[in-house]
Every structure is written in C-alpha cells, then in structure tokens.
Design a protein that fits this description.
The complex is a heterodimer of chains A (257) and B (264).
Chain A (H helix, E strand, L loop, with lengths): L8 E16 L2 E13 L2 E5 L6 H8 L7 E6 L2 E2 L5 H10 E4 L11 H12 L5 H14 L15 H13 L5 E5 L7 H18 L2 E6 L2 H7 L2 E6 L2 E6 L1 H6 L3 H12 L1
Parallel strand pairs in A: 3-8, 3-9, 6-7, 7-8
Antiparallel strand pairs in A: 1-2, 1-4, 4-5, 9-10
Helix pairs in contact in A: 3-4, 3-5, 4-5, 5-6, 6-7
Chain B lengths: L14 H24 L6 H40 L6 H39 L2 H7 L4 H40 L3 H8 L5 H27 L4 H34 L1
Classes of the chains: A alpha/beta (257), B mainly alpha (264).
Bound molecules: adenosine-5'-diphosphate (ADP) and magnesium ion (MG).
Adenosine-5'-diphosphate (ADP) binds next to strand 2 and helix 1 of chain A.
Chain lengths: 257, 264
C-alpha cells in the first residue's frame, strides 16, 4: 500500500473522458471509455497487453485522435485544440514512454536539456544546468549526466524518461507501463519514484500497467480494462476482494509472469 | 496526429490500387508540409548545418574515390576510339561534357542515396519505433520541423555542393591520365575541357543536383518517419529509401535531360 496519504481534491477534475471510441480500420480498440482523474490523484489502468491502454493515453496526450466521445484535459477538449493551444497543453501533460524513449544521439544531460531549451528560448545556460541537476537528483541518477542512453540499464532509462518529463513541470503525468520488463526490486524503486513524484511535484497521474504490485503500490484508484472497456473500478482492495473470474484471471496472469 | 497513417476500412477499387493512390496522396501532403514548415520561424539553422556536415561526412570518402576513378577510367576507355581518328586532343572536352553533364550528378546522387538515404531512413525509423518522435511531440517540440525539414534542407543544400566536388575530382582523375599519356599541362587541360561547356550545362546540372538532393531527403525521411512494425521496420525503411530514391533519380535524370535537350 501507499506509504502516505496524497492530497486529492475531489472537486477538481484534471482529466474527464466520456464515452471514448477509437478504432484502427476494423480493429475496434476503445469501445466506450469513461474515466475521470481528480487533482492530485494517481489512477491506475490495469489491463492485459493489447487492450488499448497505450492508445488511451496517446489520445489524452493528443498523439492520436479519438473517433468519438469527449476527452477533456485541464478543462480543454484535446481533439478540438489548434496547434498553438495543443502545444500549451502538452507542456502541462508529461508522458513517460514504455522504454523511456530517450534520444539516443544525445547524452542524458542533453536529453533533459532539450525539451527545456526548446520550450523556453531565453533560458540561460546556468538555469538549464540547474534544472537538469534538480530533476536528475529527484530520480536519483545525478551521476549519469554525461552518459549515453545506450549505457544505461532498463530501469535507469525509465527513470531518466521520467526526469525528462518532470523538467517541464507538468500538472499531469501519464506513465506507460512504468515497470514492464524490470526485476522486482527495480519495480519497487520505480513505484516509489512514482509516488515521490506525486508527493513532491503535486502531479495527477494515469499509470498504465499489467503489474498488480505496481497497481497496488501507486494507485489511489484502480480501473480494470478489458477489450476496450472498463469493467471494474475502485480502490485496489475494492477491486480485488471480489471473487470475479476476471480478477482471478489477472492473478493467474501475474503469477505466470 | 500525422504520425500514424491509418488504413481505410473498405477499399474503393481494390486494396492495392487504393493503397497506391493513398501513398501518392500521403507523399504529396508530406512534401506540402515540408514547404509549409520550412518557412515557419524559428528556422533551425544550427540543425540544418549539423545535418549538412553529416551528409558530407558520410559520403565524402566514397565520393572522392568514385569520382576520381570514374574520370580516370572513362578517359582510359575513351582514348582508343579517339586515337583511331587521331583525335586524342578532344579527350579533355569529351570527358568534361560527360562528367559535368551526366556523370557527376548521377554518381553523387546514387552514392548519396545509398549512404545518406539509408542512414536517414534507418535513423528516423528507429526514432519512430522507439517512440522518440512521439516523445518530441508530447514535449511540445515539432518533430516534423526538427527532424524532417532539417534533413530535407540538408540534402537539398549539400548534394549540389557534393556534385560540384565530384565533377572537380572526376576531371582531376581524367587530367592525371591525360597528363601521363599526352603530357598535357594543367592549364591547357582545363582550357580544353571547358571549351564546350555552356552555361546551360551548369544550370541543368545544378537543377539536377537540387532535384536529386531533395528526392533523397524526401524519400528517406518519408520512409523513416512513417516506419512501422518495430525493429523490423528500421531495416525495411533503410532499404526502401535506397531503392525508391535510386529509381526516382533515374526517372528524373531522363526527364531533365529531355527538357534540357529540347531547349538546347
Ligand atoms: N497507430 C496504430 N495503428 C493501428 N493500430 C494500432 C495503433 N496503435 C495501436 N494499435 C492497435 O491497438 C491495439 C491496442 O494497442 P495498445 O494500446 O498498444 O495496447 P496495450 O494495452 O498493450 O498498450 C493493438 O491491437 C494495436 O495493434
Ligand atoms: Mg502499451
């Protein structure tokens, strides 16, 4: 369970999605999704591979367009924004990719400085350096600043990915499978980092995972997704006390993993 | 939003033909977008210069060698037929016409399609499949402008420079052979060589070079930027970039030569 009680403002929704549909050709991926995320809250979306979890957060970040339904992020309809407004919104929505998606032609330091410099043209060299140090220390990897992404381990890459997102000081964090492919100890470290980010940077998050430990450790609210729909929602205990076939399936699945 | 080209559900004519027209449409909108974003501020001068160096750096050694050998060998092969008529003094001018009008742009473009085109295709494809392009997009950076526009500008600028360089190296190769065989001096070789080269030749070669450079940039960026199928897509993008670029280069060569000859 979480080691602290986050400050969640139940009166303020930062993400509010209604009846969201998305298909690729004849592949109907999302079939009527409803989800809301309150300010300060970590919502875990739990589901097996290929159920459309990544598609869901890519729509939230404006990388994909929904077919129908409303996607409201920080009070704005994402799919109706023009380029300028979408850019503004993206500065407030951080996206952590499954494998970090670090720019492999740049050092760790340059990876972190890049989004900052591009989005704040008048920033000084010293300011960039200070911000880079702050976020690197936040993820506990200050010594890697001059390394190339190829020299990092999987867990380190994910943490640098999180740091690169944090450097723009987002209000919302979207994590795509933050613990996938990591050993249990590194998983725990990442889970703690996600909570640390929530506590320290006051972010609201959607965490996508198929890992029960991650869901349990980081989620204030859990939704279970199956075949493009949400089939269960509640706190971890509420969702996982029910003797439901689906939930059992999940336990088995995680056990096999 | 542009990042994922989605396939239509039901084909209008047949899947293949529909796909063909969709590809053509996609490529033209890709090109239109390059022009639209190339003039938007801020222009990525530093990145363009960096990419120009990449293009030059990747292809210079190969181009130097190929250009030099082309000039040299072409001279050697042409000598016997000319000497039958006692016309070896025409060699410099013959070689210059061949090199400047045809060989320099073609050799350079083909080598760059192989070296630079595959490099760009693979680089952008691997950035696509590892989600680096999406990562730029979500951190409010315009990946199209930063990655595609700069690379297309770089190939369009540097390939004409490389063509001029190849022409020069090719003529030097030819000079070496002529100097050794006919004892022609450096000055008189170049005087002879440029006797039958006209302004139109420089213009056509210049236009060819720009068109070839643009083609290599657009084709390889398009293939890389729209890569799919994970790591497999990287090799495929690199490979297809080279094949399509080379094919288009030959088509454009024929086309431009036809136009130039009708003007001449
Ligand atoms: N850009 C795309 N074009 C076509 N199909 C896609 C695209 N992105 C995802 N899909 C399809 O959507 C489905 C869900 O994918 P995804 O959201 O990545 O699953 P996951 O829940 O494992 O993250 C898959 O069947 C995938 O093939
Ligand atoms: Mg996924």
């Amino acid at each position: 369970m979480k080691s602290f009680t986050p400050e969640i403002n139940m009166n303020e929704k930062v993400i509010d999605i209604h009846n969201l549909y998305k298909s690729f050709g004849s592949n109907h991926v999302l079939r009527g999704i409803d989800i809301d995320v309150h300010k300060g809250e970590n919502v875990v979306v739990l589901g097996r591979s290929g159920t459309g979890k990544s598609v869901l957060i890519k729509i939230i970040a404006g990388l994909l367009k929904p077919d129908s339904g409303s996607v409201n992020v920080l009070g704005q309809e994402v799919d109706k924004l023009d380029n300028v407004a979408l850019r503004e919104l993206r500065l407030k929505v951080g996206f952590c990719f499954q494998n970090g998606a670090l720019y492999d032609s740049m050092t760790v330091g340059e990876n972190l400085a890049f989004p900052l410099k591009r989005n704040t043209p008048n920033i000084t060299h010293a300011q960039v350096k200070r911000m880079v140090t702050v976020v690197l220390e936040a993820v506990g990897l200050a010594k890697t600043v001059d390394q190339m992404p190829s020299e990092l381990s999987g867990g380190q890459r994910k943490r640098i990915g999180i740091a690169r997102t944090l450097i723009l000081r987002p209000d919302i964090m979207l994590y795509d499978e933050p613990t996938a492919g990591l050993d249990p100890i590194t998983c725990t470290e990442i889970n703690n980092l996600i909570n640390e980010v929530q506590r320290r940077f006051h972010t609201s998050s959607i965490i996508i995972t198929h890992d029960l430990t991650c869901a349990k450790d980081t989620g204030d609210k859990i939704v279970v997704m199956k075949e493009g729909k949400f089939v269960k929602r509640g706190t971890f205990d509420e969702v996982f006390t029910t003797q439901d076939d689906l939930i059992k399936e999940f336990y088995d699945y995680n056990f096999i993993q | 939003m542009d990042s994922n080209i989605e396939q239509p559900e039901k084909p209008v004519i047949s899947k293949g033909i529909d796909g063909f027209f969709k590809d053509i449409y996609n490529i033209f909108s890709f090109i239109a977008r390059i022009f639209a974003e190339a003039f938007k501020r801020p222009i990525e001068v530093r990145e363009v210069i960096r990419q120009c160096f990449q293009v030059g750096y990747k292809s210079l050694a190969l181009i130097t060698m190929t250009g030099f050998i082309t000039g040299l060998v072409f001279t050697k092969q042409s000598r016997p037929s000319l000497s039958e008529f006692g016309a070896t003094s025409w060699l410099p001018s013959l070689i210059a016409i061949a090199v400047i009008r045809a060989l320099a742009p073609l050799v350079t473009a083909l080598i760059c399609a192989g070296k630079v085109g595959s490099g760009i295709g693979a680089e952008l494809a691997s950035m696509r499949v590892t989600e680096q392009i999406d990562a730029m997009e979500v951190s409010a950076i315009n990946p199209f402008k930063f990655l595609v526009v700069t690379r297309v500008m770089a190939t369009t600028i540097s390939i004409p420079i490389l063509v001029a360089y190849t022409g020069l190296v090719g003529l030097l190769g030819s000079f070496l052979d002529i100097h050794l065989n006919e004892q022609t001096s450096f000055i008189s070789f170049f005087q002879e060589a440029f006797k039958n080269i006209y302004f139109l030749d420089f213009i056509t070669t210049g236009i060819k070079a720009v068109v070839f450079g643009f083609t290599i940039g657009v084709v390889s960026c398009y293939q890389g930027y729209h890569a799919t199928q994970g790591t497999q897509g990287v090799g495929k993008a690199a490979n297809i970039s080279v094949v399509i670029s080379m094919f288009l280069i030959f088509l454009e060569e024929v086309f431009i030569v036809q136009i130039a000859n009708s003007i001449r």
